[in-house]
């Protein structure tokens, strides 16, 4: 499935100094994922370069 980052997401990545590559890594090879009550898919990935902290990416498959 192809994903496109929203303008909001791009702004948040810049504001929080999160490399876009981390988002793609999280979506493509998550440590785990689930579908929430909101029907969005939630992806989680430990980012080694960031001290093992987790990145949580949310994808709305209906957009």
List keywords for this structure.
single chain, 63 residues, alpha+beta, 3-stranded antiparallel beta sheet, 2 helices, 3 strands
Protein described:
The structure is a single chain. The chain is of the alpha+beta class and 63 residues long. The chain is built from 2 helices and 3 strands, in the order H-H-E-E-E. It has helices spanning 7-16, 20-28; strands spanning 32-35, 41-47, 53-59. Strands 1-2-3 form a 3-stranded antiparallel β-sheet, with helices on one face. The mean pLDDT is 94.
pLDDT average, as an integer? 94
Topology as a string of helices (H) and strands (E) = HHEEE
The number of domains: 1
Which structural class is indicated by helix and strand composition?
alpha+beta
Query: Mind describing the biggest β-sheet?
Result: 3 strands, antiparallel
- Determine the N-to-C terminus distance: 12 Å
Low-confidence runs: none
**What is the molecular shape?**
globular
């Amino acid at each position: 499935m192809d994903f496109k980052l929203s303008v909001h997401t791009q702004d948040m990545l810049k504001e929080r100094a999160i490399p876009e590559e981390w988002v793609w890594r999280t979506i493509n090879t998550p440590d785990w994922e689930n579908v929430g009550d909101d029907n969005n898919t939630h992806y989680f990935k430990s980012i080694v370069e960031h001290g093992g902290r987790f990145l949580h990416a949310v994808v709305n498959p209906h957009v």
